Amino acid sequence: MREWLSMFEERPSAMHQLITLARQIKAGQARDATAALRGKILGMVFFNPSLRTRVSFESAMARFGGHAICLNVGGDAWGLEHRDGVVMNADKAEHVREAAPVLSRYCDVLGVRTFAQLRDAGEDSRDALIRAFAAHATVPVINLESAMEHPCQALADWMTMEEKLGDTAGRHFTLTWAPQAKAVPMAVPHSAALAAAAAGMHVTIAHPPIYELNAGVMDRIQTLCDLLGTRFTITSEQSAACSNADVLYVKSWGSTAFYGDAAAQQASFAEHADWMVQPRHLHSRRTILMHCLPVRRNVVISDEALDDPRCVVVDQAENRLWTQAAVLAKLLS
Ligand code: CP
């Protein structure tokens, strides 16, 4: 494994090997694998805020004898340009063409977080910033959430589903859209649904009309479902989509129809306020409720649902630590 940028073309079996290794690390086994982190340095570049991603990676490096350094672009680090050929006479003082190879001289592995701009769907779909980092770095690069994907979150999601359900093959995964206070990206829903498809689950995605996810990602999910003999359904009927879910995964995302128009996006969220997830959406006492966090209580998911014992969001967040330790072990071995 040379990088962990995207789940898009990863083989399901290769991803599942990471889940198996993560579960071994969590159980206190696989010491040979985690020895790869000893004495190594992870450099993380954040263009956006983080609680879980930053602390879970720092914790993984510290626990297994390595060290992590965090840079917050525009805060304690220079503003970074990634486009080629631009005249850099505005707010960005440094180019990724220098920053990535310089950081590669100091660090053994790099991580980059960069959200979607939510202005141009085509530009976001190219994931240009993280791709530029990967192109100019000389050490492995990890996607800490980009415009299109959050593959570290998805590994933790997969591990959590396997812990809670046992064999995931043939089980029912429902991803439901939920309202928000402001537009947020599509990376998590893309990666969660890709992971569920790769885990051999029947995948249902429920969202109101005009909240379509990226077409290329939907095609990939269909391909994975065809390969593994499962069903893939997209619907605007939230209640029906929840009616047989073993896993109810909740996530808000903005509509490309409202990119650049915050007022219209907010009005649409208000119009669909009844999509907020509540205990009535959990169809059985064994259905698990998932969300990547952070979550806005009583906007995205109600207090009652988040405080229900079927809600596994804290277990999900813990598993970021173990799955990322597995990714680091593979990249550094
Ligand atoms: N789920 C997740 O990536 O959390 P943070 O944004 O806090 O890192």
Cα separation of the termini: 9 Å
Integer count of domains:
2
CATH topology of the largest domain, what is it called?
Answer: Rossmann fold
Percent helix range? 40-55%
Cα radius of gyration in angstroms: 19 Å
Essential attributes:
333 residues, Rossmann fold, 2 domains, 13 helices, 11 strands, binds phosphoric acid mono(formamide)ester
Walk me through the structure:
With 333 residues, the protein is α/β, with parallel strands linked by helices. The chain has 2 domains: 7-150 and 320-332, Rossmann fold; 153-316, Rossmann fold (3-Layer(aba) Sandwich). The chain has 13 helices and 11 strands. It has helices at 12-26, 31-34, 52-63, 96-106, 121-126, 128-136, 151-165, 187-198, 215-228, 238-242, 262-271, 303-306, 313-332; strands spanning 41-46, 67-72, 80-81, 94-95, 109-113, 141-143, 172-177, 202-206, 232-235, 247-251, 288-290. A 5-stranded parallel sheet has the order 9-8-7-10-11. Helix 9 links the parallel strand 8 (202-206) and strand 9. Helix 1 (12-26) crosses helix 7, helix 4 (96-106) crosses helix 6 (128-136) and helix 7 (151-165) crosses helix 13. The mean pLDDT is 97. Residues 50-53, 145, 153, 292-294 line the site of phosphoric acid mono(formamide)ester (CP).
